[in-house]
Amino acid sequence: MVWIWVLLFGGIMIVSAPQANAQPHPAADSKSNFMTNPAFRANKDYQEYLSFFEEVYATMEKNYYQPVPREAFDRFLKTFDSKIYGELKHSGKSSSFIKWRSAAYLVEAVKSSEDIFSAFMPPKAARTYEQEALGKRIDLGIEGDLVAEGYRISRLEPRADAFEKGLREGDVIQKIDEDNVPALTLAQIQERLNPLENTRVRLEYRDRAGRTTRTIEVISKEYFKQTVFMVPTHVEGIYCLQIQRFNRKTSEDMTRFMSHILKQGDTGLIIDLRGNPGGPPLAAREISSFFLTPEEEFAYFEGKNKPKTRLDVPRIPDQFHYKGDMVILVNEKSGSASELFSGVLQWRGRAVLMGVNTAGQVLLKSMFNFDDESMLLLVTARGHRPDGGVFSFKGLQPDIVKNEEDDELIRYAAEYLAAHKGRNAEKTF
Question: From 162's CA, which of 240, 267, 304, 424 has a CA 20 to 30 Å away?
Fold first, then answer.
């Protein structure tokens, strides 16, 4: 077995375990107990099942964020012998299917009842999840719309290879490799603009003036997207920064906008984290430096039988400290690092949290790959506030619950800040 550690941000699909009150399959005789059947227990497949279940359980026992009782594993084995195997076998499922589905039931049976993230995945689902989690597809940083001539670029990442090679907003892509763009659907275009990592993609495009046609070859290599954007509030003295996700360049992007805002004098600030799936915890820590006291504890992560990993607020030049009023906007898609940042500032009384409950993903997840290419996804550490309080799987509870979308919530937050100026400003720098 090999394992891969990675911080993840999105949710997962979990196969539901059988309900406790479910009736056995009609073909599985209720009087039959496979556990007491010597022929069954001597069966090669059965022994392989047991061996695999033990491997899955041992992986959880060693790496799961909290103890995994052996008694829960033993109860699962009894259920497998008396019920699960019979139901799956008599429904005509293959040995591999029985093994993988039963392993999914095992994980559901022994993990914490509050944990909605840990799960077992068969090979196909594991490969898909791993590709997404590890970013093996990399977009070219190109967004646009279908027009008669091709694909008109509406937004282009300034750090992407395509920008470096000369492509600009307003240009129209007419060919992607050998494909004429007008003959493709929007989904097909987007797929070609999100190739596997280190793929060469040839783009033929006409410039925005419609005078020149050029061809460039771009490479799908890792880059750091711009993550921070200024959004108008239409309320004087109130500014809004939208952070779409966190990466290693977020602090750099933030510095550029904060420099402008801090020059404006007495202001209110909205940080819009709705839809932000998160990113590295260190990125959230870096952003906290604009708003919290330098070198105080920001948060920590702790797993079972592992030393705590403490994150402190970095020290930055005093001129970049923002001491004014803040509102942070969140929703059910705000996860991971965005929740970490929001939750700490809410707990310290530094910002008012507005919106709806967040995703509940302030945690570290690890992927453990087995020899048959199936995978166990485990929560291996939980995020904690400096006082020891754990971030809930249920997400953050906003101070002000508001379900308005997009500009409406920004407008409400701006009006709120204008009316409550000076009530939650930081005084400790």
Answer: 240
